[in-house]
Amino acid sequence: MADYFTGEDGERVAFVPVRPDWTDNQGLLGFYNLITQRYEPTELLKLLLRASEDPENPYFLILDEMNLARVEHYFSGFLSCLESGTPVLLHDQPEELPFSDGEREYLIPPRLEIPPNLYITGTVNVDETTYMFSPKVLDRAFTLEFDSVEARAYLDLEKASSEEGFRLREGFALLPREQAAASHVSSLPEEYRELLASLEGELEPYRLHFCYRVINEISLYLKNAREWVGEDPSVLDAAFDLCLLHKVLPKLHGNRGGAGGASGPPALLLLRPQPSRRPRLHLRGVPRGAASPSPLRGEGDASPLPPHCRQGLSHVDRPAQAGIRELCGVRDEDHQEGQRAGTEGPSTP
Length: 349
Hints:
Largest sheet: 3 strands, parallel
Oligomer: single chain
Strand content: 5-15%
Low-confidence stretches: 256-313, 315-330, 341-349
Radius of gyration: 23 Å
Mean pLDDT: 74
Strand order of the largest sheet: 1-4-9
Number of domains: 2
């Protein structure tokens, strides 16, 4: 995406590998060296300065393996500034500090606002060497999982499948960028407002409910989908489905306590297909040991869930697949039998 919008202009992109020993933002923004009386900048800081001087063009920061260190430690300054709009503190000198990298002259101010034309993306791998994200980080980002591999198409053994999806209209531009706000909620169709309110209420007993920020960002997402993809109802259905996958489902992970615990019934997310034009969303508690509906089919329905929902449940199931099946009252033999019968169950590692 960065290459597409910048035309491979390296001056507008910074690729920053995250180090596991980062505990503050010095690895991102540099620091003032008291010995040399100079500021030691980083590639990111230089990108921020260039973006501030060129507000008409988008700039991109790519954090590679961003969860090798705790994001809440080294990225906390950015999170606060993105939320409040306050500038980042760089140094406490009274004047701007000059710096030259041999190609360009820079003036480093004591404080620097994060420019609105900067887009931040991070790559993530989840294994024993990385850290999970806290809800405060997930609330401020859209989480996309790329887990589909078409090996046969890549090896030229068959043609790649052509799935219909979002197709942006010609003329799409990243700038000017809107900040998600409460004003966008009023443009959200009533049925989606009802769904969001219902979902938030069902998640609240498990302390997994979302905040006003998420509602604002989902509203802005749907507004942009109508403007840049199309007014067709199926576009809004797909956009709302993606919002749940990117903003809500990533928070449904953890141990038994986080999934309902012994004090309450475990939560099972079901999207029940209805005769109407869109699936209705239900969050039902399933008593432990009781016969439960298939975790990937609507209760009493034979229709499979939409593709995004199956992908989302697979994402939720990944941290502890066997444990979540137990919480939902699904026995391993029932799960295996369902797979043999042709149902699409959660993937097993």
